[in-house]
Amino acid sequence: MRAVAPTEKLFLRxxxxxxxxxxxxxxxxxxxxxGTDVHFDRKRESSTYVILTQYFPETSDARTMLEKKxxxxxxxxIGDESVLTFYPLRHRTADVGxxxxxGAITVFERYxxxxxxxxxxxxxRELTEEARTAVERFEVSTWTDGVGHIRGKRITQx
Length: 158
Known about the structure:
CATH topology of the domain at 50-158: Alpha-Beta Plaits
Distance between the termini: 39 Å
Strand content: 25-35%
Oligomer: single chain
Helix content: 25-40%
Radius of gyration: 17 Å
Strand order of the largest sheet: 1-3-4-2-5-6
Largest sheet: 6 strands, antiparallel
Structural class: alpha+beta
Shape: globular
CATH class of the domain at 50-158: Alpha Beta
CATH architecture of the domain at 50-158: 2-Layer Sandwich
């Protein structure tokens, strides 16, 4: 890799460093519930199931509607035992400029297993679909068997 970098002009400029912040009020976001400890360990018999959804709102109205739906979804997720993590993030406004319509909103969700994801409440499932219909484009990545092992990526446009 080092030998190829100069000839292929790789790594000439550093990647922009941007910070993420909660996309909805922080009190609605959660990484764990009820003091649950998080272990990303391959030795566990049941691995967690992680879903990363990137929403790309193209207008301020779409962003406002998406944020409203994500707030409703967060409130429902807190009461759903199958949802272990729900954390919507956006790029910090100072890093993307004054225009708050820039950038995607990324939602980090975690479940105990794929079966628990499939068993989520009807309310969470319905609100997830409503959030997805609030934007023209979104991308979904699912991870299993610990962090770093991607299961697949599905790109969906509505």
